[in-house]
Amino acid sequence: MSLLTDTAGAHAPAPASKTASRGPRESRLSVAVATGFLAVIAVYMLLPVFWLIVSATKSQGDLVDTFGLWFSDMHLIDNLRALFAKQDGVFVPWLLNSLLYAGAGAAVGTLLSAMAGYALAKYRFRGREFLFSVVLGGVLVPATALALPLFLLFAKVGATNTFWAVFLPSIVSPFGVYLSRIFAAASVPDELLEAARIDGSGELRTFFTMAVRLMSPAMVTIFLFQFVVIWNNFLLPLVMLQDDRLYPVTLGLFTWQSQVSRDPSLQILSLTGSLVSVVPIVITFLVLQRYWKAGLAAGAVKS
Amino acid sequence: MSLRTQRPALRRALVALAALPLLATAACGGSGTEDGASGGQGACEKSEGKVELTYWSWIPGVEKAVAEWNRQNPDIQVSVKSTPNGNAGTYQNMSNALKAGNAPDLGQIEYDSLASFRLQEGLTDIASCAGVKEAEDDFVKWTWSQVTFGSGGEDGVWAVPQDTGPMALFYRKDLFEKHGISVPKTWEEYYEAAKKLKKADSKAYMTHFSQTDPNWFSGLLWQKGASMFGQDGDTWKVDVDSPAAGEVADYWQKMIDEKLVATDLQGFSPALYKAWNQGEVATWVSAAWGYSTIRDNAKATSDKWGVAPMPQWSAGDNAAGNWGGSTTAVLGKSEHPYEAAQFALWLNTDPKALEILNREGGLYPAATEGLELEALKQPVEFYDGQKIFDVFADSSKNVTTDWTFGPTMTDTYRFLGDGISGALGGKGTLGDALTQADAKTVESLEKQSLEVAK
Amino acid sequence: MTVDRTAAAAAPPVKNTAAPAAPRRRRNWAPAFFLLPFFIPFILFTLVPVGYAFYQSLLKTERTGGTFGRKTTVFAGFEQYKEVLGDPEFLGSVGRVVLFGLVQIPLMLLLALTLALLLDSTVARLKRFFRIAYFVPYGIPGVIAALMWAFLYDPRLSPVVELLDQVGSAPDFLGSSMMLWSIGNIVTWTYTGYNMLIIYAALQAVPGDIYEAARMDGASEAKIAWRIKIPILRPALMLTGVFSIIGTLQLFTEPQVLRSISTSVTSTYTPNLAAYSLASSDNYSEAAAMSVTLALATFVLSFGFLKFTGRKAES
C-alpha cells in the first residue's frame, strides 16, 4: 500500500513552498465545493465498476432479478470457481496471454520507441524531419484499418493464428517515438553526451547507461500507455487468432458473451471474468504511477 | 505527402495510374486456371494411412460425440474446436482462414450461410464421396434441398444436414387462461388474442419483435412460402419484397402500430429474459431449439409454458417455417474430403451421435431417424410435462422445401435488420424494410458480380 | 500542407532543443542503429498494410459461369471510391460521428481540464484517490465497458433507470434520439481520465515557483488557472484534441455492442461499423476503400484541427 501513499501528487519541486501556500487563502467553502465536485465525478467513474463488482457476486438468476447496485446472496466464490474451471480452465491461459502480449509487447515497444526517439532528437542527419513526419502519420492511421490488411499479409507467409501474429504488430508505437523524441530532447543534455564521447564511451553505451536513465520516466509512461492499448486491443486478435488457447482475455470474454444465448451461465462468468481481468491493469497502474507523472510531464509538451 | 504539390508531379502520377489497369488485366489473364467451379466433381478418394481432421463447431458438448468417433475410428482422428456462434465471429474467422489457407477440414455452417461460403469457394462438393448421395433419404426433405441448393444433387452436395429449427408457438398457458384467451390457430386469431391480452393487461405484450433476429423474420416468410431468392438458369432472382412477404410485413406492422408487440426487447437479451420472468411477454414463435432458451433463462416460469403449432395464414393449413439449424460442411481446402465426409455423415446420422448431440447440445436432428430419438418422445418437465417435441416433429415435416437462401445472406439480413430497426423506431414500415432490403440485396449481388434477373 | 507542419505544431520544443551543431562525422552509423529496430517493424506492420489496403481498394470481383461462378479479381481504379463516396449511408455515418465529435470532444476535454486543474490546485483534497478513480475506466476494455453500460441503460434492467424513475422519469437512453449521446457518455466515461492525466502531467512540469510568484502578487487560484495554467496547457490540449478526433472517427466497439440491445443502432451507424459490415460480407475491396477514405478524413480533420488551433495561438 505504500505505493499508494508515496506518490505525492503535486509539483515535484518545492514541496515546502506548497504547504506554505496552502494556508489560509482557501476558504473552507471552496475546498468543500472543489472536493465535492471531484467526488461527484468519482462516483460517476466508479459507479459502473461498483456495478461490476456487485454483479460478479451474484448468481445468474439474481443478476436480472435483484437490484443491480446492491448485493444479494453471495456467489463470488462459486463464480470464481466456475470461471477458472470453465472449458478446462481456459481463463488462466487467457490471462497469461494478455499479460504476455501486453507486458512483453509494451516492453519491447518502449525500448524501440526510446531508441528511435533518442536518435531523432540527438542526431542530425538527412531526412530526419521526414522520418519524424512519417512516424506522426503513423500515429494517425486508424488501428482498425490495419487489422484486415495485416491479416491478409500474415496469411501470405502462413503466420496467422500464431503468437507472433498478435505480438509483432503490437510492438510498433509511433506515439511512443513521438513522446521519446520530445523527452530525449528535453531531458538528455548535449553537454553530457559530449562529455561521454570525450571520455571515449561508445554511442550504445552512452545510450544504455546514461540516456535510458534520464529518459526512464518517459519510458515508463510509454510502457503504461502501450500496455493498456495492447491489453484492450480486440480487433487484431479477433481476426488473427483461431486457436482459443492463444486468445487474450478480452477476446475470450467476448467469445463467451457471444455464446450467452446458448449457454446462459456464461453471462455471469463473463462479468466475473471482466472483473478479474481489470485487476492486473489496476496493479500495473499502481506500481508504475510513482515513476509516471514526471514522465508524462515532459511528454505532454511544455510550450 | 504534400497535397498541394506542383501540377506536373500530379500529372505524371495520373499517367502512371492510367497504365496500371493494362498491367493488371494482363496479369489476371495469365494466372487464371481453367478447371470449372471449385471442388467440381473431382474424385473423392480415401487417403493413405492415418488421417487427422480438424473441425470447428459451437454445439455445446460436441466434443463428447467426437470422442466417440475417435474411439471407433483410430485411423481418422478428429480434433474439435469450440467456437463462438457463426455470426458472432466464427464465419468471419472461417472465411479469413480460408483465405489464409489454414481453414479446418470441417466446419459448422448454418443453412442460411451455405450459399455465402460456396460463393467464396469455401466448400467442397462431396457428391462423389462414398455414401453421400445415398444418404439423401436419411434426412428431412427440405434440409437436403438446402445442401444441394435445390438441384437434387445435379449441382453437387455441399454439406451434410445437422440440425433444424422447425417453428412452433410457445405460449404462456397461465396468462392465456387468466385472460380467457384460447390458443390461436391462425394469425388472425393470434392478432385477436393479442388485442385481448392488451385489453386485459395494458403492460403485457403478445410477443417481442426483435431487430437483431432478421432470420426469425425470414422464418415467418418461409412459412408463408415467400422465398427471398430463386435461381433461374445462371441468374439469381431476388424476391425479398414479394407480395406474399408484403402480407407478412403488413400483418406485423399492424401489430407494431397497435403496440401489441414489444419493440424494445432484443432477442436473447437479459431484458427479454426478465420480461419473460415477469410475465410481460406472453408468446414466442420460435424454433425447436428455443425450448432450452426459455427453460434456462426464465426459470421462474416453470410449468407455465405450452407449445402449439405455428398459427396459419388460412385455417386448416399446416405450414411451418424454419429458423436456424446447421450443417456440417467439408471446407474448401481439405486434403481429406473422403474421411471428412465420412465423419460428417456419421456425426449426423449415427443414433449414438444423434443422442449425444441432442442430450448435450439440445440439437433437434435433421436426420429422419433422429426424430425418433427416445429423448424426443418424453414429456418435458419444464413444460408441465407436455410432449413438446411431438409438435416440433410435425412442424419439421411441414417445413416447405421450396426456400432458397441467397449468396450474400449476411448483407440481406443486415439490410433487413436495419430496415426493421427503422420500422420499430417509427421511421418507415416493415414493408419499406422489405423494399429497401430487396433493392440493396440486388446491389450487393451485383457487387459480387453475380447476374441478377430484373 | 505537409506533414512537417504538424511536427512543428505538435512538437514546438523539438526545434529549439535540437542538438546544436557539433562534429558528428564519425557517428554516421549510430542513428541507423537506433532507428532501424523501430522502423523495420513500423514499415512491416504499419506502412505495408496501409499500402496493401490501398492496393486492395483498387480491385473488384468478377465472376464467370453459373449462379456461383468462379471468382477473379480485376483492377478497377477508383471505382470502389466512387461507390463509397456515393453511398448515402456511409456519408450519413460520417456526418453522425462529426456531430458526435463536435459535442462530445469539447465536453470531455473541458471536464478533463477542470479535473486536472482541480487536482493540481491547492483547494482539493484526497487527490491521490481521485487520480486512480478517474483512470480506472480507461483500464477496462472497450467491449466490457460497453457491456456494463448496456446493462445500466436498459430500461428493464438498469438500477440507475430504476432510481431515476423514482425521483422523476428517466430518459430513454436507448431510444434513437438519445443513442448518440448514450454512446458519448460511454466514451466520455472511458477517456476523461486518460485525457486528464495527460493534462495533469503537463501541469506538473511547470515549476511551482511561477505560481508562487503569482500568489505573492495576490492572484487568486482561479486567476492563476486561467492566466497561467491554461496557456501552458495549450499543446497538451491540442494533443488530446487530436487523439479524441482520431478516436471519434474510429468509433466501433460501443455502437457494435449496443446494437445487440437497441433498435437505434444500424449496421452503418459509424463509418467503421459500415466498413466492418462490408468486410464480413466478403467485400474486402469496398471495405478497404472505406478504410482508406476514413484514414484520409482523419488526416484532414486532425491537420485541420492543428492548423486551426495553431493559428489561434499565433494571433
UniProtKB/TrEMBL annotation, chain A:
Region (Disordered): 1-22
Keywords: Cell membrane, Membrane, Transmembrane, Transmembrane helix, Transport
Coiled coil regions, renumbered to chain: none
Ranges where the ABC transmembrane type-1 domain occurs: 95-287
SUPFAM superfamilies: MetI-like (SSF161098)
Main location (coarse class): membrane
Transmembrane intervals: 31-54, 99-121, 130-151, 163-186, 207-231, 268-288
Location(s) in or outside the cell: Cell membrane
Membrane topology classification: Multi-pass membrane protein
UniProt keyword DNA damage, yes or no: no
UniProt keyword Cell wall biogenesis/degradation, yes or no: no
Alphabetical list of CDD domains matching this protein: TM_PBP2 (cd06261)
Annotated Pfam families: BPD_transp_1
Family to which this protein belongs: Belongs to the binding-protein-dependent transport system permease family.
Name listed for the protein in its UniProt record: Carbohydrate ABC transporter permease
Origin species: Streptomyces prasinus
